[in-house]
Amino acid sequence: MLKAVILIGGPQKGTRFRPLSFEVPKPLFPVAGVPMLQHHIEACAKVPNMKEILLIGFYQPNEELTRFLFNAQQEFKISIRYLQEYSALGTGGGIYHFRDQIVSGSPEAFFVLNADVSSAFPLTEMLSFQKEHGEPNSFVILGTTANRKQSMNYGCIVENEDTHEVLHYVEKPSTFVSDIINCGVYLFNPDIFQHIGSIFQKNQQDMLLEEPTNGWHRAEAIRLEQDIFTALAGQGKLYVYKTLRFWSQIKSAGSAIYASRLYLNQYHKTHPERLASNKEGGPKISGNVYIHPTANIDPTAMLGPNVSIGTGVTIGAGVRVRESIILHGANLQDHCCVLNSIVGWDSTIGKWARVEGTPSDPNPNDPFAKIDSETLFRDGKLTPSITILGCNVSIPSEVIILNSIVLPHKDLNRSFKNQIIL
Amino acid sequence: MKALILVGGYGTRLRPLTLSVPKPLVDFCNKPILLHQVEALVKAGVDHVVLAVSYMSELLEREMRVQEQRLGIRISLSHETEPLGTAGPLALARELLDVDNEPFFVLNSDVICDFPFKDLMQFHRNHGQEGTIVVTRVEEPSKYGVVVFEADTGRIHRFVEKPQVFVSNKINSGIYIFNPSMLSRIQLRPTSIEKEIFPVMAEEGQLYTMELQGFWMDIGQPKDFLTGMCMYLQSLRQQAPERLHTGPGFLGNVLVDPTAQIGDNCTIGPNVTIGAGVVVEDGVRIKRCTVMKGARVRSHSWLESCIVGWSSSVGQWVRMENVTVLGEDVIVNDELYLNGANVLPHKSINESVPEPRIIM
């Protein structure tokens, strides 16, 4: 049997996802109409012989997470549990801490997935690859090809081109090492805990030698990437399975719009029922659009491509929405225009207002380009990016909000451009 | 009676509109700028209008032949081969102006107001001296040359260029009436009437002022063109309110040509002029704009403080603001944002212009 672990992080992480992560844990932020994590769970649940999915993170148990877990168990008919770390233990430390939970029932292998990626998650292919390359008990990293410049923002993998063994692993190098990058999706077997365990023991010994600061020892985080893969490379234990299917990180809010586009495109195969189509008496749909059934949309509105409309959203006459995520309860009044933006929960956009951002999409002419892990400021200026309205923001009629981030519960009274509005 | 209108050169300040037609023929509130002046002159009894132009335009000549017929007057073009300033054109046209002993009007072609030609004539005859300047009151006199004059009689004492301390808030409005005798003061060479002729006339006690009642605007550049439009429409509201469009979806002063079509659920106004054959589709919001003949504004767009040139087309969900000026036959594609764009004729715009600039 198989298991899967999804690393969901905690509230101190995902700051680049503010102000949206104030309202909802980032892994539950809707991407292509469903919580980010649901794409992971769905991919795991499809793998034959999958018995259990464990979420590891350091969020306090909360109602939203509990409700999500309950609904997901119902929908996917599989055991899904949340295991809370007592502190941020790192990508390796977390699974090591809960190793008994993972190995109980004796799975022969388990997947580990980072929550902040969007991917086609070729898990079954990883399993077949593991069996075919002929090295039993080896571990597999999902890899993909990046361009030379961007590869240095990721974990870089040098492989033996014949066997696909990982010969060298380095996290975010400062010079070019390889254009094969780590996708944050792994296939392990319980042997991995010996390797993490030896690092854990070494950290413990180091800590005993060290003077405790403020009278207590802090838990040393163990990172799979720097601490484990770097050591395992070249040992005949670690392999890379390269995928050509879609993959992107979801670090900033801007990348959520891009990730939505990737998943909406995948819906043609996996969930055609989730894609809106042009119907008599319905709004005009262009490209891939997800509309929650409870949304109320005027037939003269025009939506798409790449638009996700959440529960209870109201969209008035002659509204235009493109490349955007509209979160639940938002109200888009007549003739307003929303482009490259995320509109927060219960926000209101007045008549003829224009809410517009600048897309941060990867270069469409480079097949290996990834979304840039953009910095908020460059040379002291706010980098033009998507516009984000936090929860319960009110935009008056006829103004323009361009390349701005509006924090929750603000009533704006004029136009803003290239600003963060506290 | 005769009048000389100082048309001058290419009207570069009103580009890109003047790249398509000579400035006097640019539509202001659905009528060529020049006709506002000529019609007012005709009403005051003028039967011969001389246009002082420094370039040749077949279009202008042809249009003037049409207007001669329509108004039953004579219109001459006095063509400068070199720029003669604001006074030289009077010398050049002397033979046309100095045919009888009647006073003649002179005006700058950029000026829009409630032209007071009859009152001016009366006032001029009453004081009996060589010339009268119409003055208008401004809020910030330090930006202009002001006129200092005797309050009771209107006799001018002096002119002060950009005064640093307050001496007067009245400025030369570019509208004058002169006796033919004053022509002898001007040589046929480049001369400024304001700097070289008026001070001498004032010194000799030959120059008077009459204060303009109502609005006044120099509409020589797009920003002021729009301000002048607001003033003109307000004046229409007072003098001929039946010419303004009212009804659901119309706010404030809006002038709509009867051949224009306005869609459903639009909100138009205040201060909008819509020209002949214009099509405004459904759900459009327009305020403080001029939309010229044959233009189309597609559904759900939002326009404020713009001039949409002849036969241009503005796409759906476009936002245009901040004195965006589209020349003739410009196409703005759907969903774009134009902030202070100045678009030359026959361009197709495919990307937003978030900061003011010229689109060649």
UniProtKB/TrEMBL annotation, chain A:
Family matches, as PROSITE patterns = HEXAPEP_TRANSFERASES
What keywords are annotated for this sequence in UniProt? GTP-binding, Nucleotide-binding, Nucleotidyltransferase, Transferase
**Superkingdom:** Eukaryota
Task: Give the InterPro entries listed for this entry.
Answer: GMPPB_C, Hexapep_transf_CS, Mannose-1P_guanyltransferase, NTP_transferase_dom, Nucleotide-diphossugar_trans
One MF annotation (Gene Ontology) recorded for this entry: nucleotidyltransferase activity
Q: Which pathway is recorded for this entry? A: Nucleotide-sugar biosynthesis; GDP-alpha-D-mannose biosynthesis; GDP-alpha-D-mannose from alpha-D-mannose 1-phosphate (GTP route): step 1/1
Any Pfam family the entry gives = NTP_transferase
Residue ranges constituting the Mannose-1-phosphate guanyltransferase C-terminal domain according to the UniProt record: 285-421
The membrane-spanning stretches of this chain are: none
Locate the Nucleotidyl transferase domain: which residues?
A: 3-199
Task: Work out whether the entry's keyword set contains Transferase.
Answer: yes
Provide the family line: Belongs to the transferase hexapeptide repeat family.
Q: What does this protein do?
A: Regulatory subunit of the GMPPA-GMPPB mannose-1-phosphate guanylyltransferase complex; reduces the catalytic activity of GMPPB when part of the complex. Mediates allosteric feedback inhibition of GMPPB catalytic activity upon binding GDP-alpha-D-mannose. Together with GMPPB regulates GDP-alpha-D-mannose levels. One of two paralogs (gmppaa and gmppab) that may have redundant functions.
Q: What is this protein called?
A: Mannose-1-phosphate guanyltransferase alpha-A
Species this protein is from: Scophthalmus maximus
TrEMBL record, chain B:
Q: Which GO terms describe its molecular function?
A: GTP binding; mannose-1-phosphate guanylyltransferase (GTP) activity
* Coiled-coil residue spans: none
Q: In which pathway does it act?
A: Nucleotide-sugar biosynthesis; GDP-alpha-D-mannose biosynthesis; GDP-alpha-D-mannose from alpha-D-mannose 1-phosphate (GTP route): step 1/1
Q: Give UniProt keywords alphabetically.
A: GTP-binding, Nucleotide-binding, Nucleotidyltransferase, Transferase
Asked if the Swiss-Prot or TrEMBL record annotates the protein with the keyword Nucleotidyltransferase, the reply is yes
Q: What are the GO BP annotations of this UniProt entry?
A: GDP-mannose biosynthetic process
Q: What is this protein called?
A: mannose-1-phosphate guanylyltransferase
Q: What is the lineage of its organism?
A: Eukaryota, Metazoa, Chordata, Craniata, Vertebrata
